Amino acid sequence: MEGKVTVYRCHRFGSVHVRCPSNSHLVTCCCLQDVVFARQKRQLAAILTQGSMADVPRDLLEQISQLETIFTVSPEKLRQITDHFVSELAKGLTKEGGDIPMNPTWILGWPTGKESGCYLALDMGGTNLRVVKVTLDGDRGFDVMQSKYHMPPNIKVGKQEELWEYIAECLGKFLADNYPEALDAHERGRDVDRTAAQSFTRDKSPPPHNQHISCSPGFDIHKIPLGFTFSYPCSQPAVNRGVLQRWTKGFDIEGVEGEDVVPMLEAALERKNIPISITALINDTTGTMVASNYHDPQIKLGNIFGTGVNAAYYEKVKDIPKLKGLIPDSIDPETPMAVNCEYGAFDNEHKVLPRTKWDIIIDEESPRPGQQTFEKMSAGYYLGELLRLVLLDLYKDGFVFENQGKNGQELGNGNINKSYFFDTSFLSLIEEDPWENLTDVEILFKEKLGINTTEPERKLIRRLAELIGTRSARISACGVAAICKKAGYKEAHAGADGSVFNKYPGFKERGAQALNEIFEWNLPNPKDHPIKIVPAEDGSGVGAALCAALTIKRVKQGLPVGVKPGVKYDI
């Protein structure tokens, strides 16, 4: 179990934040502008060298035209999708519910930007565990120290005790490697708060005794506070509680679904005598929003555009009907609460999204048919499979890869027949090919698939990748627009993270254009758009730490962070 330590800082230059290694000179704003300008020049050069369709045979041109008709989402369709999205968001907040779960998180109130102190964060991903120490500087900046630990595949399908013991072991190793004095003080029975320059933020005195403390169970203010990013569907009766609804991301561990995961992990920590208390359990999307708002108060929602899709935003407590009768009296009805939308399930009823026959195949052959319709049409996990299915149909109909794989022979090396062999990076490479004859695409298909391609075929492939990538970005923008309409935001920043948003060529620009069409701004320059999708901060690290800070603040004030005592919570 090795953990590679990384340190970085987020510094403040007026309204601009710059992330750099902690031992480097600070990057100036003009340097950032040069980097952005250089990137834009490269993108433009790539577009200009793509070549024309003049040498493409008529039969392929007809196929390209048909694909454009199938995959293009018109401005009118975008607005129709968005309007239905708004109504489904509202429906999800009711007791009756709908396709979109709209899970209350019990993260109450926005960060002020003045939060300060040191907190631990734990991010339990599908491949790695990440342990993070976040130091908030009280002026919308922060320092981060983090270590990553590999998640052994056998643990993901093993016994629940093995999972929690391993996580506790990683947390203990992080403290032992970086803050051994905290462990030593705990073992000697001293208050951890007095160790080594007070490395972590705690309150020495318990919160005032009143009727609401029972709403905040399990807090141990003499231990190190930890924000736990647990991005699996959960029902949360309190901010530091989470009943797992179902495993995702390749996990299949018995004895956890239907149970509260927090006591399980805390029991493992207790057995190893590690002085950590789980203060907040969050989803990465909620963390993305909170972390991003900490350094940019214009950010009003958080989005994930990656392998999956999701969003979070704040809704006033009074406007969450499903919580009626569950909210403690001391919570002001105007208090904003973060809502984890889980909106990948939008339009499971198939009313507005323009599904193609290939989308239907992906859904029907998925582990959960009929679920996560929006995600299956927009998320990175499915884009490569969509390209593969379309190309196979074109091949079977005799339009591409002529004289290959005939007479019972396999097409190429057979990889094109493997479900999900194409990942999103496959499409990215196709779209980024800067050569007029698409040499990179030629090499990609030859090396990965064993398929020879002609230049006209490569131009069709390139156009198909563009259509799939563009549809993803445009549909994704509908979720952003719907939340802004639902919340009444006329101007806002949407903090976005995820591999597709960060790495897929043109995704940001296509999303911005879709917002321009949905809201009918008629503003060609995205810089002028009232609502912008911008890069987010580290949601699973910094965001989790901030959620822990917000929770501790409420607990110290004797304010509740969960449902009324004694009421049944079945949301």
UniProtKB/TrEMBL annotation:
Disordered: annotated segments: 188-211
Pfam families assigned to the protein according to its UniProt record, in alphabetical order: Hexokinase_1, Hexokinase_2
SUPFAM superfamilies named in the record: Actin-like ATPase domain
Pathway: Carbohydrate metabolism; hexose metabolism; Carbohydrate degradation; glycolysis; D-glyceraldehyde 3-phosphate and glycerone phosphate from D-glucose: step 1/4
Ranges of residues in domain Hexokinase N-terminal: 64-294
GO CC terms: cytosol; mitochondrion
Keyword Kinase recorded: yes
Catalysed transformations (reactions): a D-hexose + ATP = a D-hexose 6-phosphate + ADP + H(+); D-fructose + ATP = D-fructose 6-phosphate + ADP + H(+)
EC number in record: 2.7.1.-
UniProt feature coiled coil, ranges: none
Keywords carried by this UniProt record: ATP-binding, Glycolysis, Kinase, Nucleotide-binding, Transferase
Gene Ontology biological process terms in this record: glucose metabolic process; glycolytic process; intracellular glucose homeostasis; mannose metabolic process
Residue ranges of every copy of the Hexokinase C-terminal domain listed in the record: 301-550
GO molecular function annotations of the record: ATP binding; D-glucose binding; fructokinase activity; glucokinase activity; mannokinase activity
Record carries keyword Kinase: yes
Family: Belongs to the hexokinase family.
Protein name as it appears in the record: Phosphotransferase
